[in-house]
Write a structure and sequence with these properties.
The complex is a heterotrimer. Chain A is mostly beta strands. In chain A, the strands form two sheets. In chain A, strands 3-4-5-6 form a four-stranded antiparallel beta sheet, with no helix packed on it. A two-stranded antiparallel ribbon of chain A has the order 1-2. The longest helix of chain A has 9 residues. By secondary structure, chain B is an alpha+beta fold. Chain B folds into seven domains: 157 residues, Ubiquitin-like (UB roll); 175 residues, FAD/NAD(P)-binding domain (3-Layer(bba) Sandwich); 102 residues, 3-Layer(bba) Sandwich (FAD/NAD(P)-binding domain), CATH 3.50.50.60; 83 residues, Arc Repressor Mutant, subunit A; 146 residues, Gyrase A, domain 2 (2-Layer Sandwich), CATH 3.30.1360.120; 89 residues, Alpha-Beta Plaits (2-Layer Sandwich), CATH 3.30.70.1400; 99 residues, Aminomethyltransferase beta-barrel domains (Elongation Factor Tu (Ef-tu), domain 3, Beta Barrel). Chain B is built from 23 helices and 51 strands. Chain B is elongated, with a radius of gyration of 38 Å. Chain C is of the alpha/beta class. Helices cover 29% and strands 26% of the residues of chain C. Chain C starts with 6 loop residues before the first helix and ends in a 16-residue tail after the last helix. The chains are: A mainly beta, B alpha+beta, C alpha/beta. At the B-C interface, strand 7, helix 2, helix 3, helix 11 and helix 12 of B face helix 1, helix 5, helix 7, strand 12 and helix 9 of C. Strand 31 of chain B pairs antiparallel with strand 16 of chain C, so a sheet runs across the interface.
C-alpha cells in the first residue's frame, strides 16, 4: 500500500504510523463527561467500506493527516482536510 | 532398458561441453542447456522420487514449475535446499542432487508398505482414528505420523546462501517472456517506457523454446535483440514474479550465483503474460514413471533433445496436443494416439496418417502397466487394446496461469470454451495477454501482447504510439478444440487414479469427500489435502474442481476455485528476509558515549533497541557483584552514569507552557524559568503513559525528558495533539533524543565534582538549588546543568549536544578524579531508584493509574488535563486496587525475586494473590533485599507482614510492607 | 459424545469399498423458527451450538454460516493452544479451554490431533524473563503447568536457535508450558459440526444474515439470504465481522477489524518439536504434523477487512524467523494468507449479553480466538441458555471499559492497533 503524504508525496505504508479512526469526535479539552470520553476512546464504527483515519509520516516529515481509505479494498481516496 | 535417449542432433543444448553432476551419489553427465530433469532423463533416470503418502514410484510429470513429483534436495552442507523441482534447475558442473521421501532409495523404498494399507488411508482417515483408547492417545500416535510426513530434510545449520533485496520502480512490469510477454515488452519499450520483464526460466521465450520452427526462432531472436538494444528495458531470467500486493507492489525472486535477489518492484502498470499450464488426465495408475504431460514430452524433445526410447502413446482430449505426437514421429518415435473424443480436426487425421500415427478415437486410457517404469497402457472402451510403450504423453487441456492476477482479490471465472478458469478481470492498471487469459496460438498471443503493451502505456500516461509488431511468419495454430468427455473420471476403475500426484489424492478420495459432505472446494482441499503440496495444485486443482462439480451435479463455474495466495511458487524465506537478519535485525541504537564505554571495561545489555552500559569491570566481574559496588560509590562518594537514552524533546512557542499544562497531570503553567519539574502524563483512558522531568529554559522554551522506552510514543503523541486537535496552540516540538546526550553525576560528592569540572559556574546550593536548571558555556558548546536526582542522592544531570558528550564525560572524570569518581551502569541506576522509590518501566506498564502508583496527589484538582475524566472510572477508584508499596525481606539468607506473587500472611497460597513484586534489588543501605510491588489496598497495609511466593522455584519469603521511599524520606540528601 | 468413527469403521469401509461413509454433518433446509440462532459457523459458533445441545439440552438450534463452515479464522490461524494468562479471569478461562481441548477428540469422536508438544516462550532480557516468570508463577498458583528454563535448558530443547554472539537479541531463558501445543484447526470446526449435527442442531451453510428483527428492544429473528428465520435468542459469533453484524442491531462496539497474517513453508521432516515464541517481537512458530513450518507475527497495524497483508509486514516476519532460527532461511514459503481479527482495546474478548434483549455477543478475540474455542462455546452456551454470564466469562462484559476493568494481559495499553 502506498500512502499519499500531503507533504512528501506517495510513500510506502511502512514509513507511517497509524493513528486510528479519525471520524470520532474528541471532546474539547476540559469538556465532556466520563461517558463522552468513553465513547470517544473505546468505541469504533469500524466500517467495512470508506474509513477516515489518522496517519503520521513518522519516518518522514512527521506530519499527521487524515486519510480516506476503503477498508474493504484498501483503495485510498485521498487526504481529507 | 531405458525409457529415454539423447538425440544425436537438435535441441538447445551445447554438445561441445560436458557437465558432471551427482544424483544420489552416482556420477552422471549432461550438457549446458539441460535442466536437472532433462539430464536425468538423458541418463535414463526415470524413477526419481516417491510420493508423499503411499510412497509410489514417481518420475517427472512436467518440464516446468508445476512439477509435483521430481523434487530433490539440491546442494550440500550449508547450501542444501530441500524440495526443489528438478525441472527448474539449470544443470551446472558439480551439481549435487538427492532424491527425497524414500528410504533407502527411490528404487527400493521400505515405506512403500503404505501402499498395502492404502484402502484404509483414504481421504480424511486420520480424523476417524487415533482417537482412543485414552483421552490423549494422539500424543502416542503423533510421532509416527510426523516422521512419515514431510518431504525433504531440513538441515538445522545456518543457511550458507546470500540474499539481498532490491527496491525498484518501473513503468511496465511484464510477467512472462512467451510471445505475448515479448510483444508487450517490445510495444512498451519502443514507446520509451521503462520496462522490466521477469521470466522464471533460465532462457527467454516461454513456449517458443519448445518449438523447432525456424520462423518462430527468428521472431524470438529478433525480438530479443531489439529489446536488448533498448536502454530502458531490463530482461530478468530465473526471476519469478511471486506475489502482487496493494499499490502494484510486486515481488520478483531471482536466482543468482550466490543465492537469491528479491526485486521489490513498484510498477505503474502490469502485463500478465504468464502463459498456461497443461493439466493431466485422470485414469487408473496414471502416476507411473513414464506418464508425462504432452507439453513436457515436447519440451524435452525439442529443447533438450531427449526423446522416448522407441514407442510413445499420446492420450488427449484436445487438438493442441497433436503437435507433440507429430514431433515425436518426426524424431523417429513410434506413436499411437488415444483420442478421448470421437475425432480430432480433419487435417490432423491426414497429418497423422502421413506420419504413420495410428489414432484410436473415443478411447481414453483405462490402465497402465509396469513397475518402477511404464511398460504398456490399456485403452478404454471397445478397443480395450494394450499397447507397449516407453512414454505416455497426456493432455487434459490447458489451465491459464491465473495465480498472480488473482492476488488482488479478483476471483477467476470459468470459461467453458477452453474448459478452464480464466482471470475474472483485471485491476485498473493491469492487462492480460496470451495463455494467461485463455488465448492460444502464436498470432493471437502476439496481438494480445501488443494490445496489452499499449494499454500499459496508456495507464502510465505515455501517449507515444509505438510501431506495430511484426508477427512471426508462421501459420497460426488451429483452434484449441478441447472437448471434455462426459465421464472422464470413472471412479469404479481398478487401481488408483491420481488427481494430486504429490499428495496422493485420488479420484476415490474426491468421491469420499463428496459422500461426507465436504462439497465446497475449500472443504475438498482441506479434507483431502488436495492442492496443498509444494506445487499448490498447479496440475490438480481444475481436475478436482470439475470432478466435485460433476458429483454435485453443478458446473465448475458454480463450484469456483480456492483462493490463490502468494507466492506463485515456493519462495525461500531468506530471500524475503534479505539482509536485515542476525546482528542486522533491528538496527542497534547506541548512546553517543557508547565507544567510551566499550573502551573502558563496560559490559553492555540490550534494552529495547538500545545497547546500554550495564556495569563496569572496575566494580566486579559479574552484574550481581558489580552493581552493589557501583551503588556504594553513589551512596558514599560520586559516580557518573550515561543517561543519553532518555527521550529529550524541545518544546517551544508562546503557548508551550499551556501545552505542557494540558499534557501533564500537574501544573506547568507557572514553572519559573531556570526550574525543572517532575511530571506525569496520562493517556486519554486515565492510565499512566509516561513520566519525566521538564525544565523551563525561557518563557517560551521547555526541555522535556521522557523514559527511554516511551520516547518515540510520547513524541508522536505530542505531535498528534498539536497537529490534529490543538491546532490553535502556537507550539512546536522537536526530538533531541539523538542530538543531545546526558550523564548523571550522583552522590554526596557530586557538587564537589561539578565545582572541579566547571570552576567558572556557580553550582552552590544557592546558585543551583534542587530542581534548578542552568545553561553554561563549556568548550565551545552549551552544557545544561539540571539538579535532578533519580538515585535520591545529591545529584545533577549534565546534558550537551551529542558530539561533545565524550569530551565532557572525560573532562568530568578527570577533573573529579581526586574524589574517586567512577562510572556506574544501568543495573546500579535501576537499583538506586528502587531504594528511593521512584517508579520506572516495570511499574509504568500501561495497566496502572496515577493512584496505583501513589502519585494521585500530584494531579491538579482544578485544571483540566488529559485523562482526567476516564481516570475516575469506577473500578479505577476502588479502594482495593493494587497500588504501589515498598517491601523489605524479613528472612536474611533468602533471595527475594522479582515477579513473586504477594499474599497476606494467612492467605492460602493459590489463585492470583494480592499483588506482585515489580522490581527488586539488594539494598546496600539497608543490607537486605528490598522491592517495589503492587499490593491490594496498597499502603493502607503498611507495616503488615506478608508472603512473597515464587512457585516456579518453590520459594516463599516473608516480607514487610513499608513506604516505597526506603532512604532519605525527608529528602535531606536531595536538598543538601 | 458423538460416535461412528474408529479404526474398526475404517477397516469395515476398506473391506467394503462400495459402502458409503455418512455425511459428516447434515445439510438440512432451514426451519422457519428456532429456539436459538447462532450467527457464524466458525469454531466458536459451532462449539456454542454443540454445548447448547450437550450441556443445556437445547437442540432446536440453527447455526447460520454465510459461506462454508470453518471459512473464517478457525480455518486460517496458526493452530496454537496455550493457557499462559496472567490476569485474573483470563487465567481460569483459558485453562478451562485447555482442559476441554485435552478431551476434545474423545468428546467429539473426531481426531482433532490435539498435540500437547509444549510451548516455549523465549525471553531476551532479564527483565523480560521476570515478566514471564510472573506469568509462570500465576499459572502454577492456578494449577497450570509452567517451567522456567535457563539459557542452557533452552539450548538443549531448541538447538537450532541462534546462540551466537551475532544474535541481535540474546536468549536469557524461557517459560515452558508443556501442555500447550497445536490442534488441527479445520478438524475443530468439522468435529463440532458433526457432533452438533448428531444432536439435532441445524447447520445452514451459504446463508448470510442481512438484518435483525428487533421489536421493542428485543430480538425476535434474523433476515437471511434464505429468508427470515425467527429465533427465541440470537448469538453473534462472527469474529472479524463483529462490528458489521452488531451494527444490524444498532450496536457500536469497542472492536476494530485488523488483518493478521500467517505463513506456512513446504513440508520437511520433523525439526521443530515445540511451539516456539519469541519475546523480542511477537513471533511464533510450530511445525505441523504434515511437516510445514507454520508461523506468524503481529497484526499489520491498521484496520482492514481485506484478507491481503502488506509486504513490509511479511518481510518483517521473515526477518524474525531467520534471526531467531537461522535454518529458516533456506526453508521455502509455500503460502501466506491473512485473517481478520476483531481487536479490542485491551486485547480481551466479549462473551456477554448486549443492550438488546435475547441478543448475545461472542467476539473481540484478537489473536486468541482459536485457543479459546472450546471454552468460548462452553461459556457462550451457558450465557445464552441462562441469560446470564458464567463465572468463567463474567469479566468479558461490554461495559468493562466504562467501569475501568480492562483485561490487558500483556500490558500494552488501550490501543486496538497495538494489542
Amino acid at each position: 500500500m502506498k500512502i499519499p503524504c500531503p507533504h512528501c508525496g506517495e510513500r510506502d505504508v511502512s514509513e507511517f504510523r497509524y493513528g486510528g479512526d479519525a471520524s470520532r469526535q474528541r471532546p474539547a479539552h476540559g469538556t465532556g463527561d466520563l461517558k463522552a470520553w468513553h465513547d470517544y476512546h473505546f468505541t469504533f464504527t469500524n466500517p467495512k467500506g470508506p474509513h477516515t483515519e489518522h496517519w503520521q509520516h513518522v519516518l518522514g516529515c512527521r506530519q499527521w493527516f487524515r486519510l480516506s481509505r476503503n477498508t474493504a479494498t484498501n483503495v485510498i481516496a485521498g487526504v481529507v482536510e | 532398458m531405458t525409457a529415454f535417449r539423447r538425440l544425436p542432433g537438435g535441441g538447445r543444448i551445447d554438445r561441445s561441453r560436458t557437465l558432471g553432476f551427482t544424483f544420489d551419489g552416482q556420477r552422471l553427465f549432461g550438457r549446458p542447456g539441460d535442466t536437472l530433469a532433462s539430464a536425468l532423463l538423458a541418463n535414463g533416470k526415470l524413477l526419481v522420487g516417491r510420493s508423499f503418502k503411499y510412497h509410489r514410484p514417481r518420475g517427472f510429470l512436467s518440464a516446468g514449475i508445476e512439477e509435483p513429483n521430481g523434487l530433490f534436495t539440491i546442494g550440500e552442507g550449508n547450501r542444501a535446499e530441500p524440495n526443489i523441482p528438478g525441472t527448474m534447475v539449470p544443470l551446472s558442473d558439480g551439481l549435487v542432487a538427492r532424491s527425497q521421501n524414500a528410504w533407502p532409495s527411490p528404487a527400493f523404498d521400505l515405506m512403500a508398505v503404505n501402499s498395502i494399507a492404502a484402502p484404509i488411508l483414504g481421504a480424511g482417515f486420520y480424523y476417524k482414528t487415533f482417537i482412543g483408547p485414552f483421552r490423549k492417545s494422539w500424543m502416542f500416535y503423533e510421532p509416527f505420523i510426523r516422521k512419515a510426513a514431510g518431504m525433504g530434510k531440513a538441515d538445522a545449520a545456518p543457511d550458507g546462501a546470500r540474499y539481498d533485496v532490491e527496491y525498484g520502480f518501473t513503468d511496465v512490469l511484464v510477467i512472462g517472456s512467451g510471445p505475448a510477454g515479448l510483444a508487450a515488452a517490445l510495444t512498451a519499450g519502443r514507446a520509451g517506457a521503462k520496462v522490466l520483464l521477469a521470466e522464471q526460466d533460465s532462457e527467454l521465450g516461454g513456449s517458443l523454446l519448445a518449438e523447432t520452427s525456424e520462423a518462430l526462432e527468428r521472431w524470438r531472436t529478433d525480438t530479443l535483440a531489439e529489446l536488448r538494444s533498448l536502454p530502458r528495458v531490463t530482461l530478468l531470467t530465473r526471476a519469478t514474479a511471486q506475489g502482487i500486493y496493494d499499490g502494484n507492489q510486486v515481488t520478483v525472486a531471482q536466482h543468482v550465483a550466490q543465492g537469491q535477489l528479491l526485486h521489490v518492484i513498484r510498477a505503474r502498470s502490469i502485463v500478465h503474460a504468464a502463459g498456461s499450464l497443461e493439466r493431466p488426465l485422470v485414469f487408473s495408475n496414471n502416476d507411473r514413471p513414464g506418464v508425462m504431460l504432452s507439453s513436457a514430452v515436447r519440451s524435452y524433445l525439442n529443447r533438450h533433445a531427449v526423446a522416448p526410447a522407441e514407442r510413445a502413446v499420446l492420450a488427449t482430449n484436445n487438438d493442441a496436443a497433436y503437435s507433440t505426437a507429430f514431433a515425436l514421429a518426426e524424431a523417429g518415435v513410434a506413436v499411437t494416439i488415444a483420442e478421448e473424443r470421437m475425432a480430432p480436426a480433419g487435417d490432423l487425421l491426414a497429418q497423422a496418417a502421413a506420419l504413420g500415427i495410428a489414432i484410436f478415437p473415443n478411447a481414453g486410457i483405462a490402465d497402465t502397466f509396469g513397475g518402477s517404469q511404464l511398460k504398456a497402457v490399456r485403452l478404454k472402451g471397445r478397443h480395450s487394446v494394450t499397447i507397449d510403450c516407453d512414454v505416455l504423453a497426456v493432455s487434459g487441456g490447458w489451465n491459464p496461469a491465473v495465480h498472480l492476477s488473482s492476488h488482488g482479490g479478483i476471483k477467476p471465472k470459468y470459461d467453458p470454451a477452453i474448459a478452464a478458469f480464466v482471470p475474472g478481470g483485471f485491476a485498473e492498471t493491469h492487462f492480460g495477454a496470451g495463455g494467461t487469459i485463455g488465448h492460444f496460438g502464436w498470432q493471437a498471443c502476439v496481438r494480445d501482447g501488443e494490445t496489452a503493451g499499449k494499454g500499459a502505456l496508456a495507464a502510465c500516461g505515455i501517449g507515444k504510439s509505438p510501431r506495430a509488431i511484426d508477427p512471426p511468419g508462421v501459420r497460426d495454430d488451429r483452434a484449441y478444440g478441447i472437448a471434455v468427455s462426459r465421464d472422464p473420471f470413472d471412479v469404479s476403475l481398478p487401481g488408483k487414479a491420481f488427481v494430486d500426484f504429490q499428495h496422493d489424492v485420488t479420484a476415490k478420495d474426491i468421491k469420499v469427500a463428496h459422500q461426507e459432505g465436504f462439497h465446497s472446494v475449500e472443504h475438498l482441499k482441506r479434507y483431502t489435502t488436495l492442492g496443498m503440496a509444494t506445487d499448490q495444485g498447479k496440475t490438480s486443482n481444475v481436475n478436482a474442481i470439475a470432478m466435485m462439480a460433476g458429483l454435485r451435479g453443478i458446473g465448475p463455474e458454480a463450484a469456483g476455485t480456492t483462493t490463490f495466495r502468494p507466492p506463485f511458487s515456493p519462495l525461500t524465506v531468506g530471500a524475503l528476509a534479505g539482509r536485515s537478519v542476525g546482528k542486522h535485525f533491528r538496527p542497534v541504537r547506541r548512546s553517543p558515549l557508547h565507544d567510551w564505554h566499550a573502551r573502558n571495561g563496560c559490559t553492555f545489555i540490550e534494552a529495547g533497541l538500545w545497547m546500554r552500559a550495564w556495569y563496569y569491570d572496575w566494580a566486579g566481574p559479574t552484574p550481581e557483584t558489580a552493581y552493589v559496588r557501583e551503588m556504594e560509590l553513589v551512596r558514599k562518594g560520586v559516580g557518573i552514569a550515561d543517561v543519553s537514552t532518555l527521550g529529550k524533546i524541545d518544546v517551544q512557542g508562546p503557548d508551550a507552557a499551556e501545552f505542557l499544562n494540558r499534557v501533564y497531570v500537574n501544573g506547568f503553567a507557572k514553572l519559573p524559568v531556570g526550574k525543572a519539574r517532575y511530571g506525569v502524563m496520562l493517556n486519554d483512558d486515565g492510565i499512566v503513559l509516561d513520566d519525566g522531568t521538564t525544565s523551563r529554559i525561557s518563557d517560551t522554551q521547555f526541555y522535556m525528558t521522557t523514559t527511554t522506552a516511551q520516547a518515540g510514543e510520547v513524541m508522536s503523541w505530542l505531535e498528534y495533539l498539536l497537529q490534529c486537535h490543538w491546532t490553535d496552540l502556537k507550539v512546536h516540538v522537536a526530538s533531541l533524543t539523538d542530538e543531545w546526550g546526558g550523564m548523571a553525576v550522583s552522590g554526596p560528592d557530586s557538587r564537589k565534582a561539578l565545582e572541579l569540572a566547571f570552576p567558572e559556574a556557580d553550582v552552590s546550593n544557592e546558585g543551583l538549588p534542587y530542581m534548578g536548571v542552568k545553561d553554561i558555556p563549556f568548550g565551545g558548546t552549551t552544557v545544561r546543568l539540571m539538579r535532578l536526582s533519580f538515585s535520591g542522592e545529591l545529584a545533577y544531570e549534565v546534558h550537551c549536544p551529542a558530539n561533545f558528550t565524550i569530551a565532557l564525560w572525560e573532562h568530568i572524570l578527570q577533573a573529579a578524579a581526586p574524589l574517586g569518581i567512577r562510572p556506574y551502569g544501568l543495573e546500579a541506576l535501576a537499583s538506586l531508584r528502587i531504594e528511593k522509590g521512584h517508579v520506572a518501566g516495570l511499574e509504568l506498564d500501561h495497566r496502572n493509574s496515577l493512584d496505583d502508583l501513589g502519585l494521585g496527589k500530584m494531579a491538579a484538582r482544578e485544571k483540566p488535563y488529559i485523562g482526567k475524566e476516564l481516570r475516575f472510572r469506577e473500578a479505577m477508584q476502588a479502594p482495593d486496587r493494587w497500588s504501589l508499596v515498598g517491601l523489605e525481606a524479613l528472612e536474611p539468607g533468602k533471595k527475594l525475586r522479582g515477579a513473586s506473587i504477594l499474599f497476606a500472611a494467612d492467605d492460602e497460597i493459590k489463585g492470583h494473590g494480592r499483588g506482585y513484586i515489580t522490581s527488586v534489588t539488594w539494598s546496600t543501605e539497608l543490607n537486605r533485599f528490598i522491592a517495589l510491588g503492587l499490593y491490594q489496598g496498597g499502603l493502607r497495609h503498611e507495616g503488615e507482614e506478608i508472603i512473597a511466593a515464587f512457585p516456579l522455584k518453590n520459594e516463599q519469603v516473608r516480607l514487610r510492607i513499608v513506604s516505597p521511599h526506603f532512604i532519605d524520606k525527608e529528602g535531606t540528601r536531595l536538598h543538601a | 459424545m458423538a460416535k461412528g468413527y474408529s479404526v474398526f469403521s475404517l477397516l469395515r469401509h476398506a473391506l467394503k469399498p462400495d459402502s458409503p461413509w455418512p455425511m459428516a454433518w447434515e445439510k438440512p433446509t432451514p426451519r422457519s423458527s428456532y429456539d436459538v440462532v447462532i450467527i457464524g459457523g466458525g469454531g466458536h459458533g459451532l462449539a456454542t451450538a454443540y454445548y447448547l445441545a450437550k450441556n443445556h439440552g437445547i437442540t432446536n438450534v440453527a447455526v447460520l454460516e454465510r459461506n462454508y463452515i470453518g471459512s473464517g479464522n478457525v480455518g486460517r490461524n496458526t493452530t496454537l493452544i496455550r493457557s499462559n494468562y496472567v490476569i485474573d479471569g483470563n487465567t481460569q478461562f483459558f485453562e478451562h479451554s485447555m482442559k476441554l481441548w485435552e478431551g476434545l477428540s474423545h468428546e467429539l469422536n473426531y481426531n482433532c490431533m490435539v498435540s500437547q508438544r509444549g510451548q516455549i516462550v523465549l525471553a531476551v532480557s532479564p527483565v523480560q524473563l521476570d515478566v514471564f516468570a510472573r506469568r509462570g508463577n500465576i499459572m502454577r498458583l492456578n494449577g497450570i503447568d509452567a517451567e522456567l528454563l535457563d539459557r542452557g535448558e533452552v539450548q538443549k530443547l531448541l538447538p537450532y536457535l541462534d546462540y551466537s554472539k551475532d544474535a541481535r537479541f540474546p536468549i536469557w531463558g524461557a517459560i515452558h508450558q508443556a501442555r500447550a501445543g497445536t490442534v488441527r484447526h479445520d478438524a475443530v470446526a468439522w468435529g463440532y459440526a458433526r457432533a452438533a449435527s448428531q444432536l439435532g442442531v441445524h447447520i445452514i451453510e451459504n446463508c448470510e444474515v442481512t438484518g435483525m428483527v428487533i421489536d421493542n428492544g428485543r430480538i425476535t429473528g434474523v433476515d437471511t439470504t434464505q429468508g427470515r428465520i425467527n429465533a427465541g435468542k440470537v448469538g453473534i459469533a462472527v469474529a472479524g465481522h463483529t462490528s458489521e453484524v452488531a451494527r444490524m442491531a444498532g450496536l457500536r462496539l469497542p472492536v476494530e477489524s485488523h488483518i493478521l497474517q500467517a505463513f506456512v513453508t513446504e513440508a520437511v521432516k520433523p525439526i521443530v518439536h515445540h511451539v516456539v515464541s519469541w519475546g523480542a517481537e511477537l513471533f511464533y512458530l510450530s511445525q505441523s504434523d504434515k511437516g510445514g513450518l507454520v508461523f506468524g507475527g503481529h497484526i499489520d497495524g491498521f484496520n482492514t477487512y481485506t484478507q491481503r497483508g502488506q509486504l513490509f509486514k511479511i518481510q518483517d516476519v521473515m526477518q524474525c524467523a531467520v534471526s531467531l532460527m537461522p535454518f529458516m532461511s533456506r526453508m521455502r514459503l509455500l503460502r501466506h494468507w491473512g485473517g481478520i481479527q476483531d481487536m479490542t482495546p485491551d486485547g480481551s474478548p466479549f462473551i456477554c449479553r448486549t443492550p438488546v434483549r435475547d441478543l448475545y455477543l461472542n467476539g473481540g478475540w484478537c489473536y486468541q480466538g482459536f485457543k479459546a474455542t472450546p471454552a468460548s462455546g462452553w461459556t457462550f452456551a451457558h450465557t445464552i441458555a441462562n441469560d446470564n454470564e458464567h463465572d468463567l466469562n463474567r469479566c468479558y462484559s461490554l461495559d468493562r471499559f466504562e467501569k475501568g476493568r480492562e483485561l490487558d494481559d500483556y500490558g500494552i495499553g488501550n490501543w486496538t492497533y497495538k494489542q
